[in-house]
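A quick word before the example. In earlier lectures we treated sequence and structure as two separate objects. From today on, think of them as two lines of the same record. Here is F-box and leucine-rich protein 22 written that way.
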Amino acid sequence: MHITQLNRECLLHLFSFLDKDSRKNLARTCSQLQDVFEDPALWPLLHFRSLTELKKDNFLLSPALRSLSICWHSSRVQVCSIEDWLKSALQRSICSRHESLVSDFLLQVCDRCPNLASVTLSGCGHVTDDCLARLLRSCPRLRALRLENCARVTNRTLTAVAAHGRALQTLHVDFCRNVSAAGLRCLRAACPRLTLRAEHSAAMIPDQPPRGLRSPGAALRKQLLR
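And the structure line, produced from the sequence above:
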């Protein structure tokens, strides 16, 4: 029996055991299998282990996506975590090659995946508060947001959670040094039912921006207490 003689349900089940590259390679063999590859039902879960994977065409973003994780464990994460104003020319050059990858990808997710329920970002040092705020607005069914070692995440993300995370049940902001204890207290007061975890975040040394930049904690308290 040839594989193309299997019905659609069996083919989807078969594809589900393959990784993204294997799915794409199998889809190249004939138009019938390409149709299976492009079936949104095959893509409720996406996991990426490096930022370069985000640029491949071996996956599909669709309203069927429910769970997304981007976990980057690389020595370059340490470079990304350095404050921008302290980076050397070499460090800025390294970051310039990938600093917009996660944010650009998440913007696509915002446009195509409104039913997303869970997002995990680890080692994504360039993802911004604005990007996460848009994600919360665009995915009203988001129930879990787990952030780890995301250096640019500040109290503004907590503000966005309080304002737009109506369905959110779980929030992790672990090792996010620019999230403060005051911001966490304000969020707990605003969202008492939210399961909030912030391992080491408030205890870490936050960025020390040049004089004149406003403290994110003051902005958070002002917005949450309105």
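Notice the following. Residues 139 and 182 are 27 Å apart (CA to CA). We will return to this example when we discuss secondary structure assignment.
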